[in-house]
Amino acid sequence: MSQAAAQLRARLPRFNDAASLRERLALVPPRMSEAPRTPFVVLVCTVLAAGVVGLLMFNTHMQQGAFVARNLQKQANALQAEQQQLTMELQRLRDPQRIASQAHDLGMVAAENPVFLNAATGQIIGTPKPATPKDALQVAYDAPKPAALNPAPQVITVPAQPQTQPQTQPPAGAASPPPAH
Amino acid sequence: MTVRPRGNAAGLRRGSADGRLRIAFLLIAILLSVFAARLFQLQGIDPQAYAARAQADGLVHVTLPAARGNIVDRNGEVLAQSVAGTMIVADPTLTAPHAQQIAQMLAQKLNLDYFSILQKLSTDKTPNGTSIRFTYIARRVPATDANALLKQVSDAKLTGLYGQADPLRDYPGGDLAANLLGFMNGEGQPSGGLEAAFSKMLAGRDGSDTYAAGDGARIPLGENTQVNPVNGQTLKLTIDRDVQWYAQRTVQQAVQTNGAASGVAIVMDTQSGQLLALADYPSFDANHPGDGGALGSAALSNVYEPGSVEKTLTNSAMIEKGVITPQTQITVPPYLPVADRVIHDFETHGTIHLTAAGVLAQSSNIGTVLESQHIDAATLGSYLKSFGLGQATGIGIPGESAGILPSPSSWNELTKSNISFGQGLGVNALQIATAVNTIANHGLYVSPSIVVGKATTTGGKTVGSDVSSTHQVVSANTAQQVTSMMELVPTKDGTAPNTAIGGYRVAGKTGTAEEVNPACKCYDFVDVSYGGFAPADAPRFTVYVVIKDPKTSNPSGAMIAGPVWREIMTYLLQKYAVPPTGTPAPGLAATW
Q1: What global pTM score does this model have?
Q2: Min Cα–Cα distance to chain A from B208, Å
């Protein structure tokens, strides 16, 4: 190092010079009491816990509701199927075929002539004629026989055998009668 | 004392912070670029595959079937309806140990065949050794029955039997209007009739339901996407269920009593043209279409020569043209040679003197031909076309035939004579019924309809009572004169005194038409018919009945079809409470 630089350095104030240190030193004020940090932490933890638990409970409640809804839906489906069954039963009871069969069984027949009675005046409009059993309507639905129940007759042709001896037993190869139907 | 500046010998021992930082940054950059590359690989190339794999794991996709619309009659009575059904399926590997017990329950509860079910439940391996995990046990079982059965099976701690949704189509009336309704085939597709014609409007649109499931159960609050199904619309018919039933049974009785091949009865409401009944025999049970019978509607598809009922149309044309009046006097010879043939009447007679009314009432072919010689072919042909012959009525049921009306320019004299009394042209039952209805409706043709309101077929055609068309064929005066002539038919002067209804004025016409046997190409059998309406002066209903090929000796429209007509008309007048009008019949003279 050069002489000039050393001199220059000697003249500049030094920050860590003992005197400047002493000047700068001062009495440290008494420590301020800090606010306790624990309650804040507790508060935050409480809020956190409450939020988590609350969310969990809320979610659980909703899921329970979903289970209830599913059970009710199953119940509604079952009731709907039952209602359909009952409606079908009602339709079967109101079927004109069934009613006509029951009327037929009671001996009822169709009217010969349409006749009207004016209830107010007692006047009969039309030509009344007593109904007779021949006016009965055939009510049963007779489906045409399917082919399986209406087979063509089996025809077996056997040439006649000249009779040479008394018949004590049927000759071999006799025709079997066609199946009864 | 000197304090050593930082960054000198101590720094050399600890190394340069810059360098560490740079190395750290380099490592982080390498790591991030690896991440970036992986990100590009996952998202940039084929992102769907991973998403689909994630979805497939735990998501269930179910189709929500749309309920098929009902078909109801004019009073809302159900003719065809969709019922929630279940199909019973089994896993034979699980059912095989207890097959007998399960089969017994199935046989008892669902009335199935025990042995075939037992076979299915116990066969858990195919012949080449692979195990069978799925087999159908029963299709389209009503839901309550199936649920009861499945509950019984699970209560007995038996596994392997499951139920799946399988909606079924129920026809509460069985064979009631089955010829019109059609049916659903084994795959659940509509087959023929109105079910097929209006399938688009009846079917609706299926929905879907996608949800997260765990262990077979839906996870509540899990992912859930639902598209609601759009149910089908209801189709309302003009058919009256009770009248249809009655018509079907009376036709059946007549066909069976007379050993006939088939029969048809049509009931129309005169003013609106709505069909109250369109009955066919033989028919079939729509719930069991596989059991046989005649599918479809012969009333619409079968073409035949109408016979003498058509004389009412010829007479309408002639009276409208002023060629004849009901009291025109005709001398009717016992036979009439026309071209190279000889025309006879149904009953042999000598030379008789009949008025035009008498010619119609006695159904004289010869008299009709003599009258028609004063009208030319083109005019008669155009009137018949105006009455609707030769064109399909277009009510919306598939399979309807248009009939055959030869072009008037092609008629020779024999053809014209034949056509004038109803031979030599082809019609279906509905066409001729509608034509007779035109006379009942004061000469106004109303196109028949089978749907109340309007509906669009799958082919895009709109049909229904709201869109029926009308046109005046003959004047009301002409129609009234023809009606007066027709009123003679159910009297002692006419061919069918047995069709009179006590207290009422009825108008009718018998028909006995010869039909060609395609085997011998000769006229071999007859179709007998009767068409008419009541009350004659204020017609409410037109009824037309035709019975094909009755096997009785000397069959006639009066004896076979007439009684059916009378029964149906009596039923109608009573059901709809139509009182007699009380006016006296015109009582035209039949002879002179």
Answers
A1: 0.79
A2: 17
| Nearest in space to B195 (alpha carbons), one of B185, B207, B183, B186 | B183
Return the percent helix, strand and coil in chain A, to nearest 5: 50, 5, 50
Select from B572, B308, B275, B514 the least CA-distant residue to B396.
Answer: B275
Quick check: B499 and B534 in contact, CB under 8 A?
A: no
Residue B570 CA from chain centroid, whole number: 27
DSSP symbol at B328: -
What's the CA gap between B265 and B528, in Å, rounded?
Answer: 12
Q: How far is B191 from chain A (nearest CA, A)?
A: 20
Rg (CA), chain A: 58
Catalytic residues of B: 308
Q: Examine the pLDDT at A35 and tell me if it is beyond 80.
A: no
Which DSSP helix (H) or strand (E) runs through B153? helix B143-155
Three-class DSSP category at B410: helix
Of A69, A84, A92, the CB nearest to B83: A84
The confidence band for A130, taking pLDDT boundaries of 50, 70 and 90, is: confident
Q: Which one of A62, A95, A137 has the shortest CB-CB distance to B172? A: A95
What's the pLDDT score for residue B482?
96
- Please indicate if any CB of chain A lies within 8 Å of the CB of B522: no
Averaged pLDDT for residues B249-260: 93
* Closest C-alpha to B540, from B588, B501, B589: B501
Q: Strands (DSSP E) along B194-241, which ranges?
A: 207-214, 217-218, 224-227, 235-236
Q: Which amino acid is at B520?
A: C
Arithmetic mean of pLDDT over chain B: 89
Q: For the CA atoms of B249, B252, B258, B262, what is the dihedral angle to 10 degrees?
A: 150
Q: Which two tokens stand for residue B204?
A: 């609706």
> Do the Cβ atoms of A138 and B253 come within 8 Å?
yes
Tokens of B173: 């009336």
**Nearest-neighbour CA in chain A from B423: distance (Å):** 30
Chain position carrying tokens 């982080």 = B28
**B579 in contact with chain A, both atoms CB, cutoff 8 A:** yes
Query: A76-88, pLDDT tens digit by residue?
Result: 988 988 898 899 8
- Rounded to two decimals, the ipTM of the complex is 0.77
Of B445 and B49, more confident = B445
What is chain B's percent helix, strand, coil content, to nearest 5? 35, 25, 40
Interchain CB contact of B222 with A (< 8 Å): no
B535: preceding bond cis by omega (within 30 degrees): yes
Burial class (CB in 10 A: 0-12, 13-18, 19+), A176: exposed
SS3 label, residue B449 = strand
Mean pLDDT, to the nearest integer, of A41-56?
95
Tell me what pLDDT residue B125 has. 82
The answer to whether residues A112 and B569 touch, using CB atoms and an 8 Å cutoff, is no
- Whether the CB of B304 is below 8 Å from some CB of chain A: the reply is no
Distance CA A165, CA B154 (A): 74
Cβ–Cβ below 8 Å for A147 and B292: yes
**Which runs of consecutive H residues, i.e. helices, occur in B428-495?**
429-440, 476-486
Q: Cβ contacts (< 8 Å) between B289 and chain A: which residues?
A: none
Q: Which residue shows structure tokens 């017609």?
A: B539
